[in-house]
Protein 1
Amino acid sequence: MADPGAQLIRLVDDYPTSQALYVAATLRLPDLLAAGPKRADDLAAATDSHAPSLYELLHTLAAVGVFEEKPDQVFAATRLSELLRSDRPLPFTHWARFVGRPCDGPASSRLLHSVRTGKKAHRR
């Protein structure tokens, strides 16, 4: 199996995935999952996010191994998401937030707004 740090670097270098990682890091989802699996709705409440949009984000990141999706929209941490926790000595969260930070580019760069509000980024 690949080194988790190298795997995370490849994911951050992929623009749509880097946007999703930026949002996950900004909302501190890895920190929230450190104590154990949680439902997407509970994570949405804890992050003041739009629940269906946050579920889509979590599902997308689970598809690439950042989180693990369990039945009933429950998500758990993985080796990759552990690297994004803010309490790690050299957390990748700062790098993910730097690379994925908003710009005046395409609507996909405003994914955080969409996840928090449930509104489409292109209307903002």
Protein 2
Amino acid sequence: MPGPTPHYPPEFKKEAVRLYRSSNKSIPKMAEELGIASESMRRWIRQHEVDSDEREGLTTEEEEREELGRLRRENRILKQEKEVLRKAG
């Protein structure tokens, strides 16, 4: 069973994508050299392409905005549930 997923700083991700794009190496080979999972490298490349308008999809900013909205809704519901429990108890 693999361990927890490491969280890489945005600067590392940008540099990894830059290195990949400036080389003629395959994604698995570049990922191996950097010591990361090839699927992580693929996701970072895809996200870079979306953020650079080279590919369709949600930009990093749009994803963060959607997550913030989801978390705010979840927080509102949890506060309402807490209030109901407080009044019932």
